[in-house]
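call fold target=Glycosyl transferase family 1 domain-containing protein
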Amino acid sequence: MKLWLRIKNLEFSSWFIVWRELLKSFEQIPEVEVWKQGPRSFPHPDTKDWIEMWWGDPEFWEWSQYEVKLRIGLCLSEHQSFFTDNPSTMIQNINQCDFLLCPSYAAMQAYLEAPIEIPIYLMPFGVDEAEFRYYSRDFEEDTFKFLHLGVTQFRKGSWLIIDAWLKAFKKEEPVSLTIATSKNTPMFSQLQKEFGEHPQITFTKRKVASSTEHYYQHHVLISPHLAEGFALCIPEAMATGMPCIVSRCSAPREYFQKEFGWWIEMSELYSPVNQCKSGISGLWRLPDADSLAEKMRYAYEHRRECLEKGQVASDFVLANLTWAHSANKALEIIKGQLK
């Protein structure tokens, strides 16, 4: 099987990471030959034996004029083109596929309700098991450390963590929170301006060679998201042995369980989606800040349970959610379509 895996650009981002990790995992499968000269060029004479696969926002997919064996799309439902007044280019590009892959049922739902006339299959994302290995933390060390990692923004519920933190902990308690991101955002700047002098809260904005640099230095990951297409940070943290505190909504409901940490219950409050994506109607249900505060406090006071949940979480991810699992699932679907 010959695979040409395509992406719009190679700028470092979560989109690039997915492309890179899938490429590496496909290369490890003996029966798969991967085109290695980049996602754009394809001067290969025997195109009829190749499968063309695009990943990213469907608006920017540029299908080749070559005659290929299959055309496959891989996408989320958070792409900006999905929310434009005229998503016709996106729909047209998707309908040129033989089938579509999505990493979660939450991401798939929007496409199932769109005028798309091709099959849609589930292919969960994963982690690199060589990079995100189990790390033996000292859960009894003097300062207990929480982490919020990723783009600091409304959709991630980043501001809710501060609200919950002030309810959960007194300033003199030996506990800390790191809000870490690789790029500046208006919400990061505003939170840092308001709470940058808080003795327990650290804001860090830097690119790291591996996010394990953050995971290994902390005990518990916090994800009070309002919506997620998959949420790579959660299984990454789990793989290293971190229990997680996670909103009971969206894609993480498909792989996260209470055995791996704690759920943040959802409130009866809703907020407009356009606070994150301008010009978009609709509402997102908000995670409950009191529930988050309660779970953070509980984790801080039950460290042995944190250790045990982290061990179970790591075992689950490494057995079920690696990029090798993702590549082999895609291969299984492709073979079914070629029969």
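return ok
The longest strand covers residues 175-181. The domain at 144-320 is CATH 3.40.50.2000 (Rossmann fold).
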